[in-house]
Amino acid sequence: MISGVSLLRGRLLVFCAIAMSALVLRLAVTSFSPLASQIREDIGFSPTVVGVFGMVPTAMFALFGIATPALARRWGLERTALVAMLMAGVGMAARAFMDETWSLLALSALALGGMGIGNVVIPPLVKRYFSDRLALVSSVYIVGVQLGTIAPAFAAVPLADAYGWRVSIGVWAVFGFAAAMPWIVILARRRGAAAEEQTGEAPQVHGQVWRSPVGWGMAGMFGMTSLVTYSMFTWIPDILGDAGASPAFGGAMVGLFSLMGLVGAFGGPTMCARMNNPFPAVLACAACMLVGFAGLWIAPMSVPILWIVLLGLGPSTFPMALTLINLRTRTQAGSSALSGFTQGVGYAVACAGPLLFGVLHDATSGWTASFALLTLAVVVLVTGGYQACRPRALEDSWHKSDTPEKDLAAR
């Protein structure tokens, strides 16, 4: 019989594994982007290839978002998380030694594929081990994701100036390998156990997420949030530059936009857990986005910090969506399936955001059509959020034959 002390230690180890893994989930993205021009000049690929590198993250997140639930059913959640961290570590380390464009791209894709698996597998792991502390642990891992986004963006150029770009993009592999270690220990402790709950194998999924309005609502909310976020990451410097701002100011505003994500990471999960229906919070986030869009479109340099702060608060729907993955499911299998569908479909849509924003700008020689695209995205986000926030469970509506919706039990 497992003692209380052993159970506590086991949960503490899983908590550390989840927190360390969360730090890894964006490292390959933001460690590369600030150095793209420098790497291009050294290796010799065209500006078009830089755009390909820019689309790889969301493409890999989408591909592995769709594939990961099947991998988790086959390997178990813990083993899948271990594979994700090893892929991330190997990809980030090996790409630092590459001298050819396509080998650099392939190894970047390997690292990002591992991160895409991690994106999907962490929410059901939180549900499995911390169903009594969903808001707290969700906040911890989402803050970890945000820190893993911000830190490389600020450190990449100083590291490259001091040690070269190869060290700057490769050093982050240490975090991937470090995050793999606790999963190895967890799996070693479970070796030899025959019961399903001891091996970590997820129960078989008996429903189809795409048949549920919960699934499509979550995908719409998450996907449109990601589309807006990646569009702003890409184009804030150009928007402000056209209005007369310096490149340094534009870069600082991207940093501010990133930092505001910590506000949602700290507050979003708790708010979702305490509110039976957090849709009013989705409306508030949408209003922040729309005001920020209007400010950047009409008078970008009047109060630019205010516009960027509002834009940074708007994507608080991102941590809300990640938390709702667990709050709108009853089972680990449901959480895994909903996580994969939400992020697979969501990131697939988000791929097009930065590209379409730029195409519309080039076609119209202005930003009006581009911001109209993002306004339409916010409308879809609100529509999806309405479905995602309603207090009901995925498992009540993901079967071929419709069953009556049931309110979620009190959390």
Automatic annotation (TrEMBL):
Bilayer topology annotation: Multi-pass membrane protein
* Bilayer-spanning residue ranges: 12-29, 49-68, 80-98, 104-122, 134-157, 169-188, 214-236, 248-267, 279-299, 305-325, 337-360, 366-386
Q: Where is the Major facilitator superfamily (MFS) profile domain?
A: 14-395
Task: Decide whether keyword Membrane is in the record.
Answer: yes
Indicate whether Membrane appears among the record's keywords: yes
Where in the cell does this protein reside?
Cell membrane
Q: Which UniProt keywords apply?
A: Membrane, Transmembrane, Transmembrane helix
Indicate what this protein is called per its UniProt record.
Answer: MFS transporter
